[in-house]
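Hi D.,

Good news: the full-assembly prediction came through. Inputs first.
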Amino acid sequence: MYSFNNDYSEGAHPRILQALMETNLEQNNGYSLDRHTAHAAEQIRAEANCPAADVHILTGGTQTNSTVIAAALRPHQAVIAASTGHINVHETGAVEASGHKVLTRPTADGKLTPELIQEILDAHTDEHMVQPKMVYTSDSTEIGTLYTKSELEALSHCCHQNDLWLFLDGARLGAALTSPANDLTMADIAALTDVFYIGGTKNGALFGEALVIVNDALKADFRYLIKQRGAMLAKGWLLGIQFEELFRDRLFYDLAAHANRMAARLGDALTERGYEFAYPPQTNQLFPIFTDEMIRNLSKNFLFMPYQRIDEKHQSVRLVTSWATTDAGVEDFIRALDAEGIRR
Amino acid sequence: MYSFNNDYSEGAHPRILQALMETNLEQNNGYSLDRHTAHAAEQIRAEANCPAADVHILTGGTQTNSTVIAAALRPHQAVIAASTGHINVHETGAVEASGHKVLTRPTADGKLTPELIQEILDAHTDEHMVQPKMVYTSDSTEIGTLYTKSELEALSHCCHQNDLWLFLDGARLGAALTSPANDLTMADIAALTDVFYIGGTKNGALFGEALVIVNDALKADFRYLIKQRGAMLAKGWLLGIQFEELFRDRLFYDLAAHANRMAARLGDALTERGYEFAYPPQTNQLFPIFTDEMIRNLSKNFLFMPYQRIDEKHQSVRLVTSWATTDAGVEDFIRALDAEGIRR
Amino acid sequence: MYSFNNDYSEGAHPRILQALMETNLEQNNGYSLDRHTAHAAEQIRAEANCPAADVHILTGGTQTNSTVIAAALRPHQAVIAASTGHINVHETGAVEASGHKVLTRPTADGKLTPELIQEILDAHTDEHMVQPKMVYTSDSTEIGTLYTKSELEALSHCCHQNDLWLFLDGARLGAALTSPANDLTMADIAALTDVFYIGGTKNGALFGEALVIVNDALKADFRYLIKQRGAMLAKGWLLGIQFEELFRDRLFYDLAAHANRMAARLGDALTERGYEFAYPPQTNQLFPIFTDEMIRNLSKNFLFMPYQRIDEKHQSVRLVTSWATTDAGVEDFIRALDAEGIRR
Amino acid sequence: MYSFNNDYSEGAHPRILQALMETNLEQNNGYSLDRHTAHAAEQIRAEANCPAADVHILTGGTQTNSTVIAAALRPHQAVIAASTGHINVHETGAVEASGHKVLTRPTADGKLTPELIQEILDAHTDEHMVQPKMVYTSDSTEIGTLYTKSELEALSHCCHQNDLWLFLDGARLGAALTSPANDLTMADIAALTDVFYIGGTKNGALFGEALVIVNDALKADFRYLIKQRGAMLAKGWLLGIQFEELFRDRLFYDLAAHANRMAARLGDALTERGYEFAYPPQTNQLFPIFTDEMIRNLSKNFLFMPYQRIDEKHQSVRLVTSWATTDAGVEDFIRALDAEGIRR
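Then the structure:
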C-alpha cells in the first residue's frame, strides 16, 4: 500500500533529523528564545528580503492561521476567504472560536480576486454587519492552484486601497514557488503581503510553520498571543533547528521541487492516458477524475482521498506527492493506471 | 414625512404604556424575579400549551438569538441558517463572537428546508469541520414570508432525525400567526420547536422578546447566560408588565393583525396598479419593485429602505407596517403611487 | 413590607414617564440615531465639559462594562479591579466571557490605589502572563464609598504613567457626586478618566447608562461593538428621552441627592443608637452591623440584603435608598430600630 | 554555564530519538490516527488501569489545560485553582480567552483542599456569579510539592459531593510518582480524577502530554476541540512514538526518578550546609533561599530563576533537575556552594 494521501505522511528529511540528533543534548533557552531560532529567523529575513520583519515559528497551520487572525482583528472585524479556504472549511471553526466571522465567496480555482473582495465590501456597509478587515489567501491553494505575480499584485493593491490586511497562508509555499508555472519569489510575497508563513510540515520538517510579519502594525505583543493560544513550544529550538536546515543550501526549495516533479510525472502520465482534471495540475496536488470502479481498484494498493462527486459514475480524487515520494511509488501507480486499460 | 421604514418606529401601544404608569411606584424584585413576569410567563405557557416550558423575557432580538445559541452549543458546534437569516447578516457577528460558526445556504424565499439542511450535514463529516447542532429559522422570515404547518413539521422531523435543535426566531411571530396565509398556532410552534421566542419590540411593546424553552435539555442555568451576556434587565418587571398586557385579551394578535391589514391594503393597491414584488407579500413586510426615479420621488414624503438592485433601472424596496401604522399614512402612500402615473 | 433592597425597585421618576408618554407616537429613527439621543448627548457633553466626547447610551451596567472592556482590549490584555469590583463578582464572568482576565487586589474600602496597581504591574512581566491594560473603578463603589479628587488624580496619573486606560463605572455616579463627602464634578471625572458612564437605572430612569468616551483611542467603531453584544436597543430613543429629562434642570442630581438624604437620615439614626458600620456611610448604601435576631425581626417588615457575616452573632446588612425612598419608609424603619430596644 | 533553569532545556532521551529515527520513513496516517498512537494509548490505559479511558496526546501543557477546560465547561462555568496554579498565572489568560473565569485561593503549599473549595462554593450562590464546575490541580505542583493519597481522596470526594470535575495537570506527574514522599500510583490518579495528563515534555520527550479522560461525560467530541484549538499535530504519530517508548520498560519512571535523585543530591547538600527552603523539597524543583550576593555569584556559572523576594537581602530561587541533569552539573553546583563559604 503506497500513500498519495497527503504531503505529511512521513517524518522529516534525513538532514533535519540529523540536525536534531546533533543538537539533542545542548542546553537551550525555552520558548523559542534560543540561538537556533534566532539564526533561522535571520536566514528567512534574508531570503524574503525583509530585514525588519518579525519571524515566529509555530507548530502547525491551523494554529498559525487562527493566531494571526486573532492577533490582527478587533472583535467586530471579519476575514475574507475563498469558500474553499482552509480557515473556512477544515479548521473546525477555529477562527469563529476566536470570535471572528469568515466571509466567503465561491471561486472557480480557489483564488480570491479584487472583484470578489469588492462584492463583500459592498455588502458590509454599517455597524449591523461585521467589518471586513483582513483577506486570507493561500499559495499554493487548497486545490493546488497558484497565484501569479500580477494576480497577487492586484490583490495587494485592492487590500491597500480598502485598508485590509493581506495574509498569505504558505503551508504549501514551497510547492508554489518551485512550480514551473510560478513567477513569484519569497521576496515578492513579503513585499505584497502584510503577513505570511512558510510551511515546514508539508515540506520535509517534522512540523513547523515560519510566520513572517512584515507590517509593523501587526507585530505588537505577538508572543503573548502565541502563548495564550497554546502555540508556544517549550523546546522551541526544535522549530528553529528545522528551519535552519531548510534554509541552509536551499533544502526548502529542493524538497518542494522534488514533490512537484513527482506530481508532474503522475500528471503527465494521466494526461497522456486521457484523464481529465477537476483543477489544472500546477503543484504537488492533483485532482484527476476517475470512475468509481477505478477508484475501488486503485484503492487496493494506493491511499488517496476521494474529493468530489462529478456525476453518477465519476469522482475527482486528490493525489498528493511530497519531498518523500519515491520513484517506485510513482511508477507503481502509473502501472496500475495502465492495468485499468480502457475502462474510463 | 411618514415612515414605512420598520415596525419599531413608535413607542408602545397605549395600553402597555398605561400598565407601566399604573405600576410605576410598586416596589418589585429586580432581575425578572417579580410577580408580573411570573404572570406573563403563565399566560404564555397557556397560550403555547406547554405548561412545562421555561419562559424568559429579554430586551431585544440579537441579544436573544446569541444568548440562546451560546447556551445551547458546545465550542465546536455550529448553527444552520438561511443565508438571509438575521443571525448571519444583521447581528455584527454576534454568534461568531460567542465562538460559533453560522452555516448557510441561499434560499429562494428565506426559508430552510430538510434538503438544504441535509446538504450541510453531508458536507460536515468529521472533526476537521464544525459540527452542525442547531437550526435557526424565523417566522415570519426576514423577507416577510411564512412557514406553513407542513413545512415546519418537515423541518422539525429533520431536526429530530439528525439530533439538531430547532430554534425559531419569532421577532415577527405576531405578523406570521395573524397572516391570512398562516395555518400555524402558537401551540404548534411550541410543539414543533425546541426553543422559540415571541417578539414584542416589533409588535407594540417598548421592547421585549419572550423566550420559550420547550426542550428540557436547553433549560439548565439559562439565567446565568442571560446575566453573563448583559441581557438581564435590573427592572425586569418592565418586560413582564408589557407581556402581561400583550397576552391579556389577545392584544398581541390584534396588533399584529392590524399591521398585516395595513400591509394588505398597500399590497393590494400595488398589485392593482401592476407592480411586482421581489417576494410574495404575506405579512407586514412588502418588497415591491420600483424604478429608481420613483424611489426618488416617493422618498420625498415617505421613509422606507431600498433593498436590492434588480436591474439597471429597478430596485426592490422594503415597506413595513406596524401596530401603529395609520389609515392616513397608507392612503397618502397610495395617492403618491397614483401620482407616479404610468411611469413604471 | 418596605424595601431597602436596592435602588432599582421602582419604575421611573414621573417626569421621565411623562416624557415617554408625550413622545410615544412620534416616529423616530431606530438604534439611537434619533434626535432625542443626539440632544441628550449634547447635554451630557456640556455637563462633563468634554465637547469632543462620544456618548452612547446602553441599557444596563453589566452590558456597558463588558462592552467597554471588549472594545478596548486586545486578546492578551487584562483589566485591573478591586476584588469587590462589580466586574469581578457580580457579572457572571462577562469580562472573561469576552476573553479577558480580571486582575484583582483586596482593598479595605473598595477603592484602588496606585500602590495596588503597581503591585499587579510588578507581577506581570512577560508574555507568559496577561498584560494589564485597563483599570476599572466605580464611584461610588460597590460598598458605598467615594473617591476624593486627589485619589482619582493619583489613579489617573498612575494610569497615564503606565499606559493603562482608566475606566470609571458610574452606575451610582449621581450618589457619589451629590454626597456631602464628595469634591469631584462630572467635568473632573471626564478630565481624569478615559471612559466613564453615568448611571440612569439606579437614579430614576427605567433603565439606561450613558457612556462617555473621552479618549479618542477608544472611540473607533464602538457602535459595532454595541450591536454585536446585543446592546443596541431598537427603540433607542427611549434611552435618549430619559437622559434628556435627567439632564434638564439637574433632575439627575436632585434625585441622587434625595437618595443620599434618605440614607443620611437612616445613617444618623443608626449612629445615634450606637450601631456600627462595616464601611463608612457616605452615599446611598449603608452597611450597618446587626445581630442575627435583629435581622430576623426587621425582615418581617423590611426587605434588605444580608451582606457579610462578622462573627457568630453579627452580620453586616446592606440598606439602600433611592430617588423613590419615602419619608414614611425611613421613619418606619427608625421606629422598628427603636422597637429593638437594647438588644444589640 | 550549566542550566538548572527548568526540566525542558535539552532534547529527548536517546531512546526516544532513536525510535523517531527508525520510523522516520514509515507512511503513517495523520492527525494521531496511526498505530503508534493507538499502541501508546493501550500502554497508558494499562498503566493507569482504566481500560475505558480515552487517551489523546497533545503537544504542550498550556494547550492541554485550556483544551480540557474549554471542552468541559459551559460558558457560565468556572474552574477553581490554587492561586499559584499554572492556569492562573503562566498561561497568558488562556482559560479566560476561552471564556472562563479562574477562581483562586492562596495556599501555603500550592495544593487545594476541600476547605478552600468550599469557601469558593459558598461565595458563588446564584446566577449573578459564575458557577464553579471544575477543580484544577497539579501533581507535582508548580512549587514542587506533592499530593498524598489521602489528600487526593479528600479532594476527589469533595468534587463528587459538589458535582465538580476533578482535573489533574500532570506536566510533572513523573516527578510526583517517583518521589520518595509519594504514595500514589498512576492507577490511583485515574481512579480519583475525571481527567488528568501525563507530561512528556518535562520528562524526556521532545514534547507531548498524554491526556487521559476517565469520566465518560468528558469524552464526547474531544477531537473536535483538539482540532479547533490548533492542537492536532499533522504528524501525530510523533507523539505516539514518544509515549510508546516512555511506557516501554518503564522509561517514564526511570527518567523521572533520575531527576528526583539529582534534586535530592542538591537538596541534601543545601540542607547539610544549613540553607533553608521556601517550600519543602519533594521532587525535582527546589526553592532554596539565598542572599542576593550569592545569587549574583552563582549566576556566573549556573542558570536558574529567582523566584520570590523573601526580605531585603534574601530571595528564594528555583533550581530544577531533569532526566538529563548530569552528575558533573550537580557536583559543580555543590562545589560552587562551598566556595560561598559562610556568607549566608
